Every structure is written in C-alpha cells, then in structure tokens.
Amino acid sequence: MHTEMFGKGVQYAFQTSNNMTLAMSGSGHTAMECAVFNVVEPGESVLVAINGIWGERVAEIAERMGAKAQTLVKTPGGHFTNEEIEQALAKHKPVLFFLTHGESSAGLVHPIDGIGDMCRKYNCLFLVDSVASLGAAPLLMDQQNIDILYTGSQKALNAPPGTAPISFGERACHKMFNRKTKPVSYLLDMTHLSNYWGNDSKPDRIYHHTGPVSGFFALRESLAILAETGLENSWRHHNEVAEYLWKGLEDLGLNLFIKDRDLRLPSVTTIAIPEGYN
User: Fold this and answer.
1) Could you read off the pLDDT of 145-186 as tens digits, one per residue?
2) Nearest one of 170, 178, 179 to 148, comparing CA atoms
3) How far apart are CA 76 and CA 51, in angstroms?
4) Which of 86, 164, 235, 255 is buried most, with the most CB atoms less than 10 Å from its CB?
5) For 26-110, where are the alpha helices, taking DSSP H only?
6) Is residue 11 a contact partner of residue 17, using CB atoms and an 8 Å limit?
C-alpha cells in the first residue's frame, strides 16, 4: 500500500492539504489521545467543550497527562455559541480547544464556522472530533481553520473498526515538534509516527510498531469509495436517509431529542424517551 495515495484519501475526506495526515493504529480514542498527548505539555491549559461523553473523555485524558483541563459544559443536546466559546478562550488562555463535531451520545452535529478563526486570534489550537460525523455531515478542515481533525474508520466511512485517520495543520506541527518535554506515550509520539508514515521527509523509515495492515487496506478502500461517490453526494445521501427516518419516527408519535433539524447529526438519530418510560 502506497502511503502517499492513502494520505491523499484522508486529505480528500478531511478537505485538507496538510502533509501531516495519516491513520492511527487503533480506534478513535487512539487519535483522541494522540492529539492531546502531542500538542499539550504538563501544566498547560486545555479548554474542553462538554455536551456529551466525548468532551468528558478528552477532559479526563488532559488531566491524566498533567494538563489543566478547563471545561465549558452544557447538558447533552446543548450547543455552544461562538460568543460563549470566545469568552472562555479569553478567560482561560488555553493552548488547545476541543469540540466534538458529531456528538453521538446526544445525536447533535455542532456548528463549526468561525471557531477556528477565534482560536487563531487567541493563539490556541482547534481540535475537532469527527468520528461519528465525517462523511455524513459537511466538515471542511482547511476552510474552517481546524488545526487537528480526527475520525474513526467504522462509522460513515463504513470500514472495520480499528483505524483512525488524523491530520495536523502547520500550527499544530509547530507546537508538536517544538516541545520541551517528550509526549507521555511512546506509541503515540508523532515524532515516531510521522517517520513511520513517511511524512517527516527523512530518507529512512525506522520500525516503530506493527500497524493493523489489514485494517489500513480496508480503510484505504473505504476512502476510495468515498472519493468515487463524492463528499457532497455522501452528505446528501446521509441527510436524505436521516430525514426519512425522522419522519417515520414522528409518524409513530415519537419526538426526536434534538428539536432543531439543522443541529441533528444525520448519522445518529436520538429519540426523546416518552413519558412513563425509564
């Protein structure tokens, strides 16, 4: 498998030209930890938007590696305004801001426009989790100024679980490769992984770990199918199927958990529990 062609598939799915684009040997959590471990050092401040379980996990990961995890919290199904995010960025001065694009525990797709610009204004990196949303809902890494983006193989990409595409922009690479301390994880150290994937421009690629090769081949095929289908067609297809499901559920007398149609995650539909049920 030619890693350059593989990288181009991820670049297309993410809509990025970032050179530092690869796949993790593990599920979405591996990419989540890789992002935090590589760009954050102990004692630094991280701002985490929590409106479901994924923000909760990133906050715990940041705390475990010695960062100061500051949180913006809403109940599941809630979303954050750009004003709320900017106030928190100004107050906490974090090196990293985390937001979940597709919050699968609530069925919410979070607006992204303008947040990357604010992060640049406050000299903060913007990290986005798109595990449940990539390929199902519009997301444009470069255009929306996302510094680090990751997803998982097993959701809308429709590949077996166990691999996780991730991409780092120039600002993220500058922070990552100019650290004072080594990342807490040897396995997820991007100094090694960038060489393993041939992204560091060095002539020699040194053995680091044994990747899930079969999983990478399956992921490569799913990326090829997405490229053949076209991102816009994939987004449209997911939306049409989701709207069909929403109408069917409402025709049964059920209410959907996310009231605002524009905030519903096309790949995960959540139903409000009817009264009288646990």
Assistant:
1) 999 999 999 999 999 999 999 999 999 999 999 999 999 999
2) 170
3) 5
4) 164
5) 28-39, 53-64, 82-92
6) yes
